[in-house]
Design goal:
- This protein is α+β, with helices and mostly antiparallel strands.
- 34% of the residues lie in helices and 19% in strands.
- The protein is built from two helices and eight strands; from the N terminus they run E-E-E-E-H-E-E-E-E-H.
- The protein has helices spanning 34-51, 79-96; strands spanning 8-9, 12-13, 16-17, 21-22, 57-58, 61-62, 65-68, 71-74.
- The strands form four sheets. Strands 1-4 form a two-stranded antiparallel ribbon. A two-stranded antiparallel ribbon has the order 2-3. A two-stranded antiparallel sheet has the order 5-6.
- A hairpin with a 2-residue loop joins strand 2 and strand 3 (16-17).
């Protein structure tokens, strides 16, 4: 718990250091607990995408959100379905103070 609360960091650029500032969310890069904590944290998000009933399915299996490490790919059968998935992303980001970087990869 001590590793993730009260943490302060600073930025170094060309030998010049910024002022210290508190880290209020996220997991430590390379931390042994980070993958487990990330999975617990992101599970709510993936379940909300699944429970929406929108996105791609193979039979009964939801494949509308494929996740590995800190990457998530959204798959939808229509522009309308994709907009719904993206709205869920925005809702999750607002509720849990998560910034999601969206990259549009039209195929």
């Amino acid at each position: 718990m001590n590793m993730y609360t009260g943490q302060q960091v600073r930025v170094s650029w060309n030998g010049i250091f910024s002022c210290n500032y508190r880290v209020t969310n996220g997991v430590k890069q390379g931390g042994i607990l980070s993958p487990i904590l990330f999975c617990i944290y992101i599970d709510v998000f993936l379940l909300s995408l699944h429970d929406s009933g929108v996105g791609c399915f193979i039979g009964e299996y939801f494949v509308g959100a494929l996740a590995y490490a800190d990457d998530i790919v959204l798959l939808a059968p229509s522009a309308h379905a994709m907009r719904r998935l993206l709205a869920i992303c925005e809702e999750y980001g607002s509720e849990y103070s998560v910034s999601l970087m969206l990259i549009n990869q039209n195929v």
